[in-house]
Amino acid sequence: MATRKKVLLKVIILGDSGVGKTSLMNQYVNKKFSTQYKATIGADFLTKEVMVDDRLVTMQIWDTAGQERFQSLGVAFYRGADCCVLVYDVNNVKSFETLDSWRDEFLLQASPRDPDNFPFVVLGNKVDMEESKRQVSQKRAMTWCQQKGGIPYFETSAKEAIDVEKSFQTVAKNALQQESDVELYSDFPDPIKIDGETGRQGGDAGCAC
Amino acid sequence: MFSAFSAAPKQKTSAELHDLVRDKLLREAGVDYESRPILVIYACYLPNPAEADYDLLLDMFFQRLNEFVLNDYVVVLFAAGNKYQPGWSWLYKAYSHLGREYRKNLKNLYVVHPSLWPRMIIQGMGAVVSPKFARKVQWVYTLADLGVSIPLNQLYIPDVIREVDAKNSGAKVPPGPPIDDSSTEQLPTVFGAPLQDIMGVHGEKGVPRVIRDCIEYIRKEGLAIEGIFRRSPASKQLQHAKRAYNRGDDNFALEQCGDVHLACSLLKSFFRDLPEPVLPAATYDVIRGIHSCADENEQVSFARNAVVPLLPPPTRRLLAAVFGLLHQVHLYSDQNLMTSSNLTIVWAPNLLRSDNPVADFNMGAMGPQGGGAGVIIKLCVERYPEVFPEGST
Fold it and tell me: What is the mean pLDDT for each group of 10 consecutive residues in chain B (393 residues)?
């Protein structure tokens, strides 16, 4: 088991501007929350190594700008994703109502092999805010997730670190499931293997000369 | 880079080039109303670079020019109708060959029918190398306008130029409400329509109603709202509003939708839907020049003198109107949290658009490693009154 091929899971976070995508990623990867109000430029990713069912996997988490222009950023970013995290703000009903179009957009762009069974996870963020501000009930969100084929649903707070770890654990697990369902690299040309053995993902394969 | 090459290059002899320069490319046209000799340059006669040695051409050009430049002179450049475009490096060479007396004695340069290409080159060089030079340049969009400064009957005007002029002048329609007659849904009338169709070639029709409505509404209700221009509206409402403006529906009242974020998205959407982005990839080279500015004040004058004049008049008016608003939004950033950086991040993708999103990201970045557009957009937000001294009128 220990000598199994190293797994890289690509996870995409989508959702309207200001729902907390960057904050969730930062809380999960760096255990930090910044109160600075800052829009995200384009797309960026962080990686984190996690244990899933006794397997060490590397999660590459793509944080995207919620700006409209990037909704059609498309193919290059979405392709090869193993799981898509849809985030909305429980205090903002519009951000919930756009989940449909984010999901459709993702399926269209990523065109996964089996769209009906592609793993999504929905996060209702900012549950730390006072109850009176809440605009989307848990029930409403869960009903939507059921209608879409039983998408796992979590209520989170990136600020207070509520259920962030737990939800991303599910993300990792479902992504890994997806990754082993799809025959490895079947969609892509083989990666160039520098030393014949490890075939690592780009970047850090240093020069051996 | 040259824009065209022929398959079977047959080099012109230097005698042929000499004749070309004397008879076609460069002509004398008497004196202007202040008795200064007029030189006319015809870009439409530029030879195919595969058939002509452009370095040799440049020499001939200067030989001919030498006869005039000892005293004051004016130049009329017919920029349109050219099949071949000399590249940046050649033009730069040409410019650097110009001795001091050429530049000093040149009193006016009238660029007639400028498309984006000559505007970029001339403005870019002028402002980078010499702001004084930039002030001598006048952009002329019709022959009628040229006639105000230059006695037209002295000029030889090739047919190709007359054709371009007929097209340009024909597009000139009397000012009126931007959206009235066309109620068809097929052709975009507002969102997705070319800016010069909406605002007129010279921007004479003013900023379109949707922009005015949005700006007014946001000024009134939105300045203090957190995440203004960042948050999204309901997408159905957005589609509804866009259709209403495209129909020219006078009964549609933006304020009744009761959502400032809707107005913000409409604004951004208008820019994204333009068939030509306001900062097209062709401007990137000039924009990158901002990094050679020593300090922020220099950057401001670069933006004002080198970048803004590159843009066609309707674009300038539109940007002046929108940056006026963004400047105000930024002044309220302690309440709305939208600092100039945040505004730049959310606006850059709407202003920059080439077919390469990665290049666009890079252009929009604000740091020294970025392409420069981010820096310029941020300056326009922070120091709007200096970058757009005349405002939007």
Answer: 46 82 83 81 83 82 76 84 70 69 78 73 60 73 81 83 78 40 57 92 91 95 93 83 89 87 94 91 89 93 93 94 97 95 91 76 77 92 94 62
CB-side neighbour CA atoms (13 Å) of A179: 22
Domains plus CATH for chain B? 14-173 (3.40.525.10), 187-387 (1.10.555.10)
Q: Cβ of B385 under 8 Å from any chain A Cβ?
A: no
DSSP H or E stretch at residue A123: strand A120-125
Please check whether residue B35 touches A, CB under 8 A. Answer: no
The pLDDT of A81-95, averaged and rounded, is 95
The answer, yes or no, to whether residue A150 has pLDDT greater than 90, is: yes
pLDDT of residue A69: 55
Strand duo B26-31 + A83-89: pairing: unpaired
Nearest beta carbon to residue B350 from set A18, A38, A69: A69
Contacts of B244 (CB under 8 A, 6+ apart): B252
Instruction: Give this prediction's pTM.
Output: 0.61
Decide if B336 touches A, using CB distance below 8 A.
no
* Residue from the list B226, B342, B357 with its beta carbon closest to the beta carbon of A39: B342
Interface test mutation site (partner A, options B191, B226, B229, B232, max chain A beta carbons within 10 A): B232
CATH class of A8-201: alpha beta
Which residues 8-67 in chain A show a CB within 8 A of chain B?
16-18, 37-42, 65-67
* C-alpha to C-alpha distance for A85 and A61, rounded to whole angstroms: 10
Judge whether residue A122 has pLDDT over 90.
yes
List the single best residue of A36, A44, A68, A102 to mutate versus B (max B Cβ within 10 A).
A68
Mutate which: B231, B267, B347, vs A, most A CBs within 10 A: B231
With CB atoms and an 8 Å threshold, state whether A42 touches B265: no
Over the range A16-54, which residues count as b (16 or more CB within 10 Å of their CB) and which as e?
Answer: bbbbbbbbbbbbbbeeebeeeeebbbbbebeebebebee
Domain boundaries, chain A: 8-201
